[in-house]
Amino acid sequence: MGTPSLSPWAVLVLTLVLLGLWAPRVRSRQPNFIVILADDVGWGDLGANWAETKETPHLDQLAAEGTRFVDFHSAASTCSPSRASLLTGRLGLRNGVTHNFAIASLGGLPLNETTLAEVLQEAGYSTGAIGKWHLGHHGRHHPNSRGFDFYFGIPYSHDMGCTDSPGYNLPPCPPCPRHSTRVARKDCYTEVALPLFENITIVQQPVELGSLARRYVEEAARFIQRASDSGRPFFLYLALAHMHVPLSPPLPPAPGRGIYGASLSEMDALVGRMKELADSLGKGSTLLWFTGDNGPWAQKCELAGRLGPFVGAWQRQRGGSSAKQTTWEGGHRVPALVYWPGRVPARRTSHALLSVLDIFPTLVALAGAELPPNRRFDGLDVSPVLFGWSDVGHKVLLHPNSGAAGKVGEIEALRLAQYKAFYTTGGAVACDGSTGPAERHQPPLIFNLDRDIQEQEPLDVASREYQAVLPAISRAYAQALQDIAADNVSVADYSQDPAAIPCCNVQHVGCRCQGAHGGLGSSWDPHVEKRTPRLCL
Q: Can you list the GO cellular component terms from the UniProt entry (predicted)?
């Protein structure tokens, strides 16, 4: 039988294919992304991490069906800086956000910083943010001006305003006033009610905390449905109120863990519902990434999360907490799970040194987009680690001070392989009210985390091990500071003005909305509220 003849064009294409110089371009669909950021969650708050925890069956199932990262870190150990780093891939010394914004802040994440949402929006994504923002709410700092097509949530922490049914707190906070009498209370916001936004409209003030988790899931489902109907991929950034201080949980206190355990169960159920939503789009179409913004808020005692083994024993012996706001492991080592059926291996535990900083460059790469030019990034594209092709992450990871010791934002600790060096130590406010004074260390304290995960006993300065690793640590520290100094860095505006406080009706005590739940004798109608703008920024 004769061989069919080929056209000259077909011969050329076949030759190029065989030589590996040409391949037909097949455009695969861009994946959807759901990033869930828990607030003040402890590494030990997941049963998959810590056997004593029993309240997280959905998160544990997520770990079983995806990959669990056990050496994963927030980019700072307090709210605003950590969130700014997630959305920019840059440390606070670069993006300008070194400490928290206030309810009266005029500024926010600097406008010359490019957010992950802006990059993905440009790449064709529908973008939504639901939950806590805390990166500036006034003017162009609002989420709708930072790349998010849709926003629904509270512009800062849910204890930064009064409510009619206050959540649990230490010390307990009173409900919003209904008359002009001023009630001052230390550590409580008593004069302005907590607002709930839909885009630039306040739809409820004060917020009903007891229904917040349910409403976040409902809004997430609506956003996902709208994106699905449009045929566009989506990026959903879901920044939970849990576990900052517990909301008013609809569940009875959990045996052995009380109110915190009930709130943890509520968060777990919320994450389970988000997994169901992701799966409903077709398994393999959506990457879900769960992590935390920093470690537990130890000052809140029984309302704080579990550290697991990361207790910062050296600091505890000297006073203060070694959790949130500190550079001890309990302050910045956070749980992390990635679920993407068919792409991310199931039942895998990774020991790669990773960070919240990596979310930005990784999702940008997976979307087929480009990183913004003219700036340097601290995060890495860690998709090879996600896919199980590698278990190598950062060679060096920097830990900035987040309020416990030294100047905020300054690099006070550094991780190099299994070694962690402290140039400044200090403890945040502990449950007993104690703090640990700042101490400078030159030469630095160095711990070997492979042998001493509790950070109890630093290496002897005279030991061979210390002397062998010190030069590499010193070089890495100097190079990091030089790199930041040479970068295109931003400066955040931390000025405040009472006029910037979100208020849907300045004529009402506490800024109550007419018709808001429990306000002025009227029930709150979400449909009416959504048609009637309360505040346009």
A: lysosome
